[in-house]
Specification:
alpha+beta; six-stranded antiparallel β-sheet
Length: 188
Amino acid sequence: MKPPLVVQSPPSLRDASRTRTDKLEDDRLNRIVLESIASRMARVERGEQEVEVPIAQVAVGEIVVVRPGEQIPVDGEVLSDQATLNQAAITGESMPIEARSRTNVFAATLASLGSLRIRVTAIGADTTFGRAIELVEEAEARRADVQRIADKFSAYYLPVVLGVAALTFAVRRDPLATAAVMLHHIIR
């Protein structure tokens, strides 16, 4: 007995035929992942004390303190101290940088060695990281017309190819010719 012929569509065809609901769910999950990278709390100097507060309660011009191993919660300018920063979340650069007085730093970067006192210049959605999240969302929302047409086309393409292959098999009774028809049209 011969094993059944199994045809699997290539990844690009499978991806194009996914439902709109699946894509919206992926977009929502991407946003959750991106937002989870950003810090939700900040250590702010208020008077003579350092107070940990939610990001929403930090004001531009305040001074935020970042300790070793912590994530920078805001965009700002370093006032004092120095630290080695991993800015891969913003720049994609894997090599750390040295931040010292007058260095501009960005939310979602990691202070791996050293601590910093930072004057806040931007918070939340106004930070470089916040704007990056918005740009990603806009790009996902504005799908090109060509992509929408390709999505509709791909929903019908595979069934048509399978129909042509079935017709080839019915006429020729040759499994090899049938497989050739399917592979020719699917891999193309």
